[in-house]
């Protein structure tokens, strides 16, 4: 959720003409990450949970791509994008660990 808040703040600095372009894409991708985690958890099925965790991983990669593009286009602060990308990497690792944990619990 903090990544989503910070991504919203970051994208607020973009040019106004990007409202329906890159700003929208960043915001949709970042909101999708915790939403997929929550939806999968709410399904009460380990298999469904893993599927939604994979969806969250896909949204995270999408966000990373948008952040890299924003750096290349010089939208927002390069350093702020780099910090968000570092957090994406950390969250990606957590998602991998969570998938392993859910799969391990499923095998027991």
- The percentage of residues in β strands lies in under 5%
Kindly identify the CATH topology: de novo design (two linked rop proteins)
Q: How many distinct folded domains?
A: 1
Query: In DSSP terms, counting alpha (H) and pi (I) runs of 4 or more, how many helices?
Result: 4
Overall mean pLDDT stands at: 96
Helix content: over 70%
Can you characterise this structure?
It is a single chain. This protein is mostly helical and 108 residues long. The protein has a single domain (2-107), classed as 23S rRNA-intervening sequence (de novo design (two linked rop proteins)). Helices cover 82% and strands 0% of the residues. The protein contains four helices and no strands. The protein has helices at residues 2-11, 22-42, 46-73, 78-107. α1 (2-11) runs antiparallel to α4 and α2 (22-42) runs antiparallel to α3 (46-73). The protein is elongated and about 50 Å long. It starts with a helix and ends with a helix. The mean pLDDT is 96.
């Amino acid at each position: 959720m903090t990544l989503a808040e910070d991504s919203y703040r970051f994208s607020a600095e973009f040019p106004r003409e990007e409202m329906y372009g890159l700003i929208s894409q960043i915001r949709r991708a970042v909101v999708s990450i915790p939403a997929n985690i929550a939806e999968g958890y709410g399904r009460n099925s380990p298999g469904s949970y893993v599927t939604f965790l994979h969806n969250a991983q896909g949204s995270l990669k999408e966000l990373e791509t948008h952040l890299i593009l924003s750096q290349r286009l010089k939208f927002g602060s390069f350093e702020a994008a780099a910090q968000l990308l570092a957090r994406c990497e950390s969250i990606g690792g957590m998602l991998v660990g969570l998938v392993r944990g859910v799969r391990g619990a499923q095998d027991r």
